[in-house]
Design brief:
The protein is of the alpha/beta class. It is built from ten helices and seven strands. The protein has helices at about 15-30, 45-50, 70-80, 95-105, 115-125, 145-160, 165-175, 180-190, 195-205, 210-220; strands spanning about 10-15, 35-40, 60-65, 85-90, 110, 135, 140.
Length: about 220
């Protein structure tokens, strides 16, 4: 959380300019410690600003009804690349309609746009690193995760997939990730050390990774 002198640096994403101004005014009035860091009028703008270190905020208030993309998609794209920015979803519709997809997308809770008391309470809770209480959605009891935990989960789900590798490449990567030297891998798989290097190079290139360390890190994350 980005806090100075107990201030909460708030970012708001909503495609309705009138709603944006109204929310900023009401929240600032109810929560004097809130400073509006930036606002965004679309999902793409929200993603760009949220991932820019120069626009660092303490919490993002994200509308679910954006014009250019679903709010859940914007949330997921931000969370898969940022594990520190708390995200609080908001909607003018039924919370149960979005609760499950919002949690899956990595938000720390969802609140009604017109519930100003609930909105302010949720902002202080989520900005402080907390999550909102579990919600019922159909037959599912929806639990919200911390930003850090959701980020780790989505990095694996949305990142490079080991299923893109050939069977031999997966075998080589697995043994390499387990700290086996190329000569040992070659002996176990009955191939040459040169072939081990070739398979590692191809796997790294196929997954769009820039180093062996990233390859090893990905393999271990996929085991979680």
């Amino acid at each position: 959380m980005h806090v100075g002198n107990n201030a909460i640096h708030l970012a708001i994403a909503d495609n309705d300019e009138i709603v944006l101004r109204g929310l900023a005014a009401i929240i600032s009035q109810q929560l004097p410690q809130v400073r509006v860091r930036w606002v965004a009028h679309s999902g793409h703008e929200a993603i760009e600003r949220a991932l820019d270190p120069l626009n660092r905020a303490g919490i993002l208030l994200l509308d679910m009804s954006l014009e250019d993309m679903p709010g859940t998609e914007a949330c997921r794209r931000i969370r898969s690349r940022n594990g520190t920015l708390p995200i609080l979803a908001m909607t003018a519709f039924s919370l149960n309609q979005y609760a499950a997809t919002v949690a899956d997308a990595g938000a720390q809770g969802i609140v009604g746009k017109n519930d100003f008391n609930g909105l302010c309470h949720a902002i202080t809770t989520v900005a402080a690193g907390g999550v909102l209480p579990a919600m019922a959605s159909g037959t599912r009891n929806v639990l919200f995760e911390s930003a850090q935990y959701a980020h780790k989960r989505l990095r694996v789900a949305d990142g490079p997939n080991l299923t893109l590798l050939t069977e031999r490449e997966r075998q080589v990567v697995e043994l390499y990730a387990q700290a086996n030297k190329p000569a040992v891998i070659a002996l176990r798989l009955k191939i040459t050390p040169g072939s081990v290097k070739t398979h590692l190079d191809r796997a790294q290139k196929r997954l769009g990774l820039s180093s062996r360390a990233e390859l090893v890190d990905l393999w271990w994350r996929c085991q979680v």
